[in-house]
Amino acid sequence: QVQLVEPGGGLVQPGGSLRLSCAASGRFLRVNVMGWYRQAPGKQRDLVASITRSGTTNYADSVKGRFTISRDNAKNTVYLQMNSLKLEDTAVYYCNADLSVTPWRNDAVWGQGTLVTVSS
């Protein structure tokens, strides 16, 4: 099994920027698609952005033009650059990765979550 560690959360002013990172460690053959989800109190967990191993990205409409997802395959790390932050971006952000743990088995793994608070 692997773990995903998510440093990078914190408090930021409206209109400000913050970068999240998430690194996979442990025993696995390959990290496949990686993504970021977020969950605000009383709401469901929704996809924010995802990125394939080759770099193809997908974004929720609410963050298009403001957030950028990227990855470093050599470091097994995914990043989320968040710009022009709004109050409604406040949520717990979760990293997710699909990993090949054997040649025939893939597992979805979640990070522990990190709180991003946008407040004036």
What report would you give on this structure?
By secondary structure, the protein is mainly β. It has strands at residues 2-5, 10-12, 18-26, 30-39, 46-51, 57-59, 67-72, 77-82, 91-102, 105-110, 114-118. The strands form two sheets. Strands 2, 4, 5, 6, 9, 10 and 11 form a seven-stranded mixed beta sheet that branches. Strands 1-3-8-7 form a four-stranded antiparallel beta sheet, with no helix packed on it. β7 (67-72) and β8 form a beta hairpin. The protein is elongated, with a radius of gyration of 14 Å. 28% of the residues are buried.
N-end to C-end Cα span = 40 Å
- Provide the residue-averaged pLDDT: 95
Note the run of SSEs as H and E.
EEEEEEEEEEE
Radius of gyration: 14 Å
Return residue spans where pLDDT drops below 50 for at least 5 consecutive residues. none
Q: What form results from the Cα inertia axes?
A: elongated
Helix content: under 10%
The beta-strand count equals 11
Structural class: mainly beta
**Count of alpha and pi helical runs:** 0
Short description:
Helix content is 0%, strand content 58%.
